[in-house]
Amino acid sequence: MTHKLLFPRYNENQVQLSIINTTASEDAGNYTCLVINDVGNSSDTTSIVIQVVPDPPFNVTVDSKSSRVVNISWMAGFDGNSVILDYTVKISEDNQNLTDVVCQGSLTSASLVNLFPSTTYNIRVFARNLIGKSTGSSVVNAITDEEVPSAAPTFNVTVVNSTAVIVSWQMLTKEQARGAILGYYLSYKTELDNDVWVNRTVDGGNITSYLVTSLKKFTSYKFVMQAFNSKGASPQSAAVVKKTDQDIDALQANLTGLVKNQDYRIRVLASTIKGDGNYSDPPLIDQTNQDKPGAAPENLKGRNLTSTSILVTWGEVPADKQHGHIRHYTVIYKKVSGGPDKTKIVTIKRAELEGLDKFSEYNIRVLAATIKGDGPPSDPIVVSTDEDKPSAAPSLTVVKTLNSTSIQVEWEPVPPQNRLGHITKYVIIIYTDGIEERKMDVPAPASKAIVNGLKQSTTYTVKILAATVKGNGPPSDPKTATTKGEENTKTV
Q1: Given the DSSP bridges, would you call strands 263-266 and 284-287 parallel, antiparallel or unpaired?
Q2: Is the backbone of residue 447 left (phi > 0), alpha (psi -120 to 50) or beta?
Q3: Which residue has the higher pLDDT, 196 or 18?
């Protein structure tokens, strides 16, 4: 676009002219000063570049991660016509404790170190030039890997009778667990040097007690414990020594109609014709066997992370329906449009489904399992992956000359399977002699447009592409048209 300002008189003492009071990015371009007097004219042209804050980085990607380090990279946005001085990576741990990491220069990758295992981090990247700082990139989530627990649980041993004890312990803190605790190893032996250790595995990170039976009467035992997660077992605890009681004569009774996987405190009293005696003390603590869960986990939710991944979260199985120690969860998912069921097994109440089709709806369910098997699946939820750029171009059908300065362009839309989102606009690209001359945006869902302001008797090459909120797709194959003054229109 050309603008012209006329100054009819010129003072020789005037050495500059102000033609732009405030600047915007669209003011960039070539400026020509033309001086005319009675003898002739002279001109000079200069180029003006407008500097603005940069666009935010895009396509932020987690390249690799471990328990303590997350490596990310990104693509640089428009630099605002000013050299990028640095990038700032903002990290929040489980949506708290915001931390800044500054990357000097134009480096488009960073290693985020000194992180904590099994923790969700939210990551955004900002660019900065001499003018200022950009807005933030889209948020990327990264979950660090687990590590072996750093400590064994603190525990104590309570004598129940002459052949049984209760071992109870405290759950590890997040800092000690370094991941989802899957269970505990309990080992015990008599204090005799030549005796062998008896090993028991307690499945379930939420379990805090275990009944040890079939011990020798009136004997001292040594007990040690470890906690374990998917990466291995913690260091072994210090030993606790406890002696079983002396034996007494006992009777027995069968208790029926009890709740599955339930702890019971049992006391006994004796009666004569004169009345009841005192209850036994301390009470016997025992537990019924486990069964499959009787219900699915509650509060199943999902949201897309990217165009190919979905994050799914859920709550506990109702306590009275767990029927045991929940060992793992199975996420069952498939495309709404059809296809086989796929599954992912996890030990925590969240799962990231990856490798999904772009901009596609998925039916998702979850079930819980104990040592006895799988419980029923939840009611399904439907979650869609995020949009992406179109993977194919519209079909350019007609490029028709209307007059000496206009052509008409017509097209067919991108095939549904290649749209990968909601088409927001079409971009018509005009070339002359292989050089891009101009672009014209046409809002969707239009299927034709007229391009005006062209040169007479000129052959133009035309391409078209479609765009979603995520960006432009590939351009179409070209077609050509030639403007010819007042001659008849030409269709190609």
Answers
A1: antiparallel
A2: alpha
A3: 196
